[in-house]
Amino acid sequence: MSHTLIPAMRLFITGAAGFIGRSLVTQSLTRGHCVIAMVRGTTDVTTLPWASDPRVTIVRGDLRERSDWVDALRGSDAVIHGAYGQGDFFSQFAGTVVGTENLLAGMEAVGVRRLVHLSTFSLYDYRALPARASLDETAPLETHPQLRDAYTQTKLVQEQLVRDFARRGGQVTVVRPGAVYGAGKMWDAGMSMRVTDGWWLAIAPWAALKLTYVENCAHAIVLAAENPAAVGETFNIVDTDPPTQRAYAKTLRRHGIDVPRSIPVPYVVARAVAQVADAVNRAFFRHRARLPWVLSPAKLDASCKPLTYPNERARWTLGWTPQASLDEALDAITRGIPVAPMHMRLGQPDASTPTRAKRLIKVGVSLAVHGYDRAAGLVGRPLASRSRGVIVLYHDIAPSRLRSFHRQLDRLQHFARPSTLAELRGEPDGTWRVAVTFDDAWRSFGDHAVGELQRRGIPVALFVPSALLVESDHDQSRELMTVAELRALPAAVEIGSHGRTHVRLTRLDDPALTNELSGSRDELERVIGRAVTAHAFPYGEWSPRVAGAARDAGFTHLYGIEPDIARAEEKPVIPRVVVDPVDWPIESYLKLRGAYRWMAPVIEARNRRRPSAPSHGAPGDVRHPER
Fold first, then answer.
1. Residue 524 in 3-state DSSP?
2. What range does the domain containing 409 cover?
3. Number of domains in the chain
4. What's the pTM?
């Protein structure tokens, strides 16, 4: 069995000591790849967190000169090019344009064709878009770079070089990150310009910021290197539902980060002032006067125009979901609470973390549903006589959340009868049952969950992505269980398939789909020595074609992700409701009582209106769950 989503790659990463580059190396190692990390000759490698990792080869060099680093390219499966020049125009041109010319020539010399190029949102022509428009990968690029800064000008030339390389046979993916934030780089809380000490202008404070956390961004870039479907594509990388400037500043303060006082300036006011200043500069100074950037309409639009930033292309094609929310990222930055490095946000439905307001709305509606259930019970029609209960789904149990997990188990035992999956497939008998399942075979399942469940006498089923299990315990940073750990689980733990490599099955052609399903069953049966008859769809995403293929592969019971109850009439795919230790107590209680089932038809109706994902010719009717 392999260690990662795909066979381990040899990745050559330029700019590896930079802000994004450090995270790129970390994400690559997390996903099981080997890295050739190119850094400048003056870099102090002792400050790099992965410098002593045996899977990393550090190469010193300067892309502005062709030297020994070209030989280090040989044998690479892909190059991730994140290096660029800084300083004045000529320094940026040398580091960005000349460096890229040399890199592409070196790749051609040693026969490396696969390139993931880090571009930028700065290339877009913001003046061509109306305010509040959607800026996606189809937006036009800047046609008057002389009105912008040296960074935009040199990155435009750089991307043209990359596109020319693609026309010569290069297998190119262009990734355009938004405003990448992380430790030491918070983008001045989204402020626009300092006026005096302690006071800043906040232009368009109600507009969304194109933010992406550095680890989220690096994860997407590595996915692009791995995925053959990314060749020839361009991806904008922005976190889902990015905050407005005001919301960002408020969240930073809540996490103890200093935020300067600001003067809010509506975008229309700032744009009108910039238009007047530009007209004066053009009429009297022939655009030779050096004005602050906020008085240049082109630069102001690029930084402050209110727009929306969809990320559907990256999510659909790469299977990318931002690993950390804004709060989780700031916890990692300020308090050292780590965001779990993941092969992916394994098993999490393809939806953003619900906001507090959305959670409150869902709780309110679910309370009403629960009230109806209680009233129906008083008149002799209890829900347990019409349903067998619910199946709950956990993923990772962080050590910091163990107390919450234990309290949730207390509630489960108090309000329901813990049951096996088989018992929930029986006829309703008036007893409200709850079955517990875990997806993904996280290491925390063996370390923290299974022992506690056994002690309480709570049955559990584990759905395993078979090809992601690691063979040994040599890597202490691993996140998933080893083969030996899976084999050593108590016999009472039911083992089911979660695919081989945790890909979205709806996007696979028939041979690849068969390999994912039959291959997973065969691998798991060899490991545990007993039949595997249950399958849970990765991300809960399925279609009639995929469900049929799973049955053909020998699976008799199929499980999805949908907050419905286990009804007397069994569905083709049995629903499970996602529960997490971070859930509020009222949320976990209502989920255990089946009160979130009102969401199931809402999700189904929404999905009927949603276009199907590209699936290599597979039919539509794809089911996309949501938490």
1. helix
2. 356-609
3. 1
4. 0.61
